[in-house]
Each structure stands twice: as structure tokens, then as C-alpha cells.
């Protein structure tokens, strides 16, 4: 097989995966279960400290597992060394060797495997061509832009012919403009290569732009798994609604609901029904105006709300800070929120760690 032909994609299954860094401390990852479809783009998303990097590092084999299992194409890789797993990692800072050319950076792992110079350079050059970097093969990382370094890092990860590419905040070292450009490139590469990508990010926007499947994590648990559309339009819990942003969480007598702030209606006091509120901010954002509000009859933690008004609507009836208004929404736009992730009970001693066979992986197909 040619070195640059994409190998068959793989599916990853994580079963009751747990990481406890020190006895007596809460687990960083707590018995999570997750299936990632072959050839899909999966984003692990959550606030700092939620356990997403720990999960990725355990899949990569860079962190030991406290309990649970990781399967790749039905093969248990939990205790295999990183190089024997069929995964490759692309790091935040790309971790390129500064004294080596792009070509030698890409060829490095083949050198370690004892592949001849001619052969490893041939394969590295092919991969650099593939990421449109062939013409800069002799440059050192310091002579390349951030985006070019990212492509070299990608080529270097691909030379081991991984079935799953693991990316830990791969865009965060780039400036905002380049980040959006490279984000689109990552997505294109993933589709071209047909590989499974697992990408860790704390950016909702990045995950929404890239993912077939978003996995929202909170305190070592998975709060929600779904397509970006599902997660944004049907947040499972208060945590997800607040973390994704763009939602109001409202306490009603029958429980909490979330309503997207572009689905809220606003009317001047006396001209409409709904929750009484006072305007605290008015922010012009170009295509829309974001109105910040304080609800009159809500508990302190639930008092803030926002409404996104199309620029035209705002121009037709401008609002200003201090104005008293009423907020309402259609029942069809309200999403009942569940309690969120429930920490699982500790399994009884002696329970086998792989609880279910790898089957029906298509459930999360893109
Ligand atoms: N090597 C370590 N030793 C001890 N605790 C650790 C170690 N690495 C991470 N932790 C802890 O485990 C928890 C999860 O960390 P992790 O890095 O997985 O989170 P994260 O969601 O990736 O956060 P970030 O976005 O800040 O990288 C945190 O409470 C963190 O302090």
C-alpha cells in the first residue's frame, strides 16, 4: 500500500473510562461512555478542567487509565503503548523540532523506526505535497507561518498512518483570522482523508463549525452528545444551555426551560405580556443588536437574560438602557432542561470493565 493512501477509518469506543490523578481527589474523568463513528469529526468540548484533555491523552496512550476501556475498531487498546495504538496526536504548539527542516520533522518517526533515508524522505515529501507544503520542505519551523507549521504538524502526524487523529486545542496558538482559515482546512483534510478526528477545544464556536458529533463535558462527566444542531437547539441541561451561550435559562413553575435569545420577543412595558424586565445593556453587533436585561421576579442567579434583535427590528423600535419591557416566547421555542449528567454509582467490586460489546457503532454516524 502506498504510504499516503488513507487507511480504513476506525471507530473508537470508550467504556466506563476513569482517571483519578491522586487518591482522595475527585476523578478528572468519571466512568464516561462514548462511541465515535468511523470517519467522523468529534469535538470534546467543555470549560477548563472538565477532563477533555485527560480523556484525549488516555485515548492517545499518553496518560494511564485508572479504570475502564478504550477500543479502536473493536480492539482493546487501553494498555497498549502510544505508538502501537493506531492513533496520532497533534498538539497545541505543534511541537515541531526547531532545528529540523519541515521534511525531517515529518520523516522523524520513520527515522526512529529505522526506515531508510531515501524511503522516509520520499514518504515525507509526498505528505508535505498533500498538505500543500512541498515547496517549503527545506524550511525550518521558525521560517514558517503558524498555519504552515500546522500543516507540517499534520503531515508529521499522518506519516504513522493513524486511523484516528487526536488534536489537542490545535488552533489555539493561531491568531483569530488564521484560526478560522485553518479550522476550515482541518475540516477539509478530515473529509479528504476519511479518518476519525477527535479534537479537544474549549470553544463552542470551533466545535460547532467542525464537529459531526459534539461531546459536552462538565466536571469529568459527559453532559450531552449530539450534532451541533441538536446540542444548540435542544440543550440537555442548564449547564449545556449556559455553556453554549445564546440561550436564556428561565425558571417556570414546572421547571427550568431554555429559550434561544434570538427566539425571544420583547415589547415595551404596557404593550405586551410576559416577564417584566429592565434593559441593562444595548450592544450593536452589526447584523443584530444584543439587549441585556435584568428580570424583575427571578432568583438572583436566574436574573440575567438577553434578547437578540435583528438590526432592522431594532431600527424600527429602538430600546435603551433603563427601559422597562416585557419578554415572551412561543411555547414551541422553549426547551425543558433535564438535571444534567448524573454521577454514576460505583460499580460493585468484580464487575468486568468492558460492559458491552462494540456493536451498532452507526448510532452516531455523521
Ligand atoms: N497531571 C495531572 N495531575 C493532577 N491533576 C491533573 C493533571 N492533569 C490534569 N489534572 C486535573 O484534572 C482535571 C481535568 O484536567 P484536564 O486537563 O483534563 O481538563 P481540560 O478540560 O482539558 O482543561 P483545559 O481546557 O484547562 O486544558 C483538572 O481538575 C486538572 O486540574
Automatic annotation (TrEMBL):
Gene3D superfamilies: P-loop containing nucleotide triphosphate hydrolases (3.40.50.300). InterPro entries: AAA+_ATPase (IPR003593), ABC_SmlMolc_Importer (IPR050093), ABC_transporter-like_ATP-bd (IPR003439), ABC_transporter-like_CS (IPR017871), Mo/tungstate-bd_C_term_dom (IPR008995), P-loop_NTPase (IPR027417), Transp-assoc_OB_typ2 (IPR013611). GO terms for molecular function: ATP binding. PROSITE patterns: ABC_TRANSPORTER_1, ABC_TRANSPORTER_2. Residues 12-244 form the ABC transporter domain. Pfam families: ABC_tran (PF00005), TOBE_2 (PF08402). This is ABC transporter ATP-binding protein. Keywords: ATP-binding, Cell membrane, Membrane, Nucleotide-binding, Transport. The keyword Metal-binding does not apply.
Amino acid at each position: 500500500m502506498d504510504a499516503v493512501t488513507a487507511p480504513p477509518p476506525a471507530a473508537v469506543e470508550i467504556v466506563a473510562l476513569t482517571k483519578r490523578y491522586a487518591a482522595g481527589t475527585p476523578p478528572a474523568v468519571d466512568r464516561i461512555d462514548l462511541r465515535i463513528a468511523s470517519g467522523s469529526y468529534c469535538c470534546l468540548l467543555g470549560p477548563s478542567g472538565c477532563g477533555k484533555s485527560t480523556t484525549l491523552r488516555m485515548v492517545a496512550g499518553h496518560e494511564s487509565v485508572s479504570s475502564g476501556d478504550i477500543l479502536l475498531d473493536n480492539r482493546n487498546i487501553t494498555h497498549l503503548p502510544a505508538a502501537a495504538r493506531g492513533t496520532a496526536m497533534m498538539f497545541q504548539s505543534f511541537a515541531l523540532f526547531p532545528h529540523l527542516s519541515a521534511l525531517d520533522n515529518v520523516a522523524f518517526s520513520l527515522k526512529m523506526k529505522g526506515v531508510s533515508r531515501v524511503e522516509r524522505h520520499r514518504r515525507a515529501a509526498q505528505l508535505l505535497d498533500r498538505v500543500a507544503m512541498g515547496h517549503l520542505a527545506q524550511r525550518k519551523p521558525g521560517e514558517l507561518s503558524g498555519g504552515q507549521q500546522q500543516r507540517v504538524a499534520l503531515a508529521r502526524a499522518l506519516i504513522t498512518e493513524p486511523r484516528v487523529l487526536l488534536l489537542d486545542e490545535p488552533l489555539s496558538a493561531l491568531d483569530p483570522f488564521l484560526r478560522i482559515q485553518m479550522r476550515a482546512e482541518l475540516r477539509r483534510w478530515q473529509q479528504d482523508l476519511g479518518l476519525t478526528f477527535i479534537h479537544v477545544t474549549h470553544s463552542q464556536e470551533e466545535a460547532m463549525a467542525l464537529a459531526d458529533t459534539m461531546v459536552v463535558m462538565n466536571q469529568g462527566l459527559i453532559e450531552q452528545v449530539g450534532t451541533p444542531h441538536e446540542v444548540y437547539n435542544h440543550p440537555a441541561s442548564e449547564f449545556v444551555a449556559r455553556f453554549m451561550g445564546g440561550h436564556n435559562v428561565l425558571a417556570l413553575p414546572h421547571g427550568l426551560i431554555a429559550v434561544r435569545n434570538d427566539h425571544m420577543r420583547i415589547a415595551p412595558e404596557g404593550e405586551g405580556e410576559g416577564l417584566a424586565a429592565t434593559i441593562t445593556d444595548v450592544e450593536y453587533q452589526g447584523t443584530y443588536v444584543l439587549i441585556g436585561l435584568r428580570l424583575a421576579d427571578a432568583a438572583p442567579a436566574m436574573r440575567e437574560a438577553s434578547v437578540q434583535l435583528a438590526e432592522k427590528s431594532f431600527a424600527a423600535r429602538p430600546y435603551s438602557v433603563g427601559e422597562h419591557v416585557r419578554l415572551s416566547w412561543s411555547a414551541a421555542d422553549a426547551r425543558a432542561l433535564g438535571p444534567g449528567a448524573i454521577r454514576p454509582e460505583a460499580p460493585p467490586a468484580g464487575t468486568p470493565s468492558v460492559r458491552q460489546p462494540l456493536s451498532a457503532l452507526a448510532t452516531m454516524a455523521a
